[in-house]
Amino acid sequence: xxxxxxxxxxxxxxxxxxxxxxxxxxxxxxxxxxxxxxxxxxxxxxxxxxxxxxxxxxxxxxxxxxxxxxxxxxxxxxxxxxxxxxxxxxxxxxxxxxxxxxxxxxxxxxxxxxxxxxxxxxxxxxxxxxxxxxxxxxxxxxxxxxxxxxxxxxxxxxxxxxxxxxxxxxxxxxxxxxxxxxxxxxx
Length: 187
Hints:
Distance between the termini: 69 Å
Number of domains: 1
Order of helices and strands: HEEEEEHEEH
Shape: extended
Oligomer: single chain
Number of strands: 7
Strand order of the largest sheet: 1-2-3-4-5
Structural class: alpha+beta
């Protein structure tokens, strides 16, 4: 009986010390993680709007968006972050779009946990380039390899169709939210 009590006391002590150390490391790392996340967001704004020289955050509830301005402080477009589910987890995307919301400038995948070698192809330039200049006046969509895409559709990645469909769905949902904000005068 005495041995069991000693074992419980030792294990409880080790658990408390480990938990305390983990909390301390987390408290120490959280500010650095936030700074790095902000840097990544800022870099992504200028990736999706390469002609941008400055930006202004859009305050509209939980919507994360930015007005992007050019050399002469004229609005050149918007950059916004939207996320949704992929095949294996969350996909978070920065989307650049023209001021009239008619064409996508570019996209940048900020976070993803897709299947290495297949689903991760959504982060590669050949896939991201498919969105440059894509007509975004209505819904955007996708087609399978071999089909002829319309001006508002991309060709999905063979072997990673679910990831491709997910990226398209996330962007389309984000665009609908952005249109709603613009129509409501919140941009």
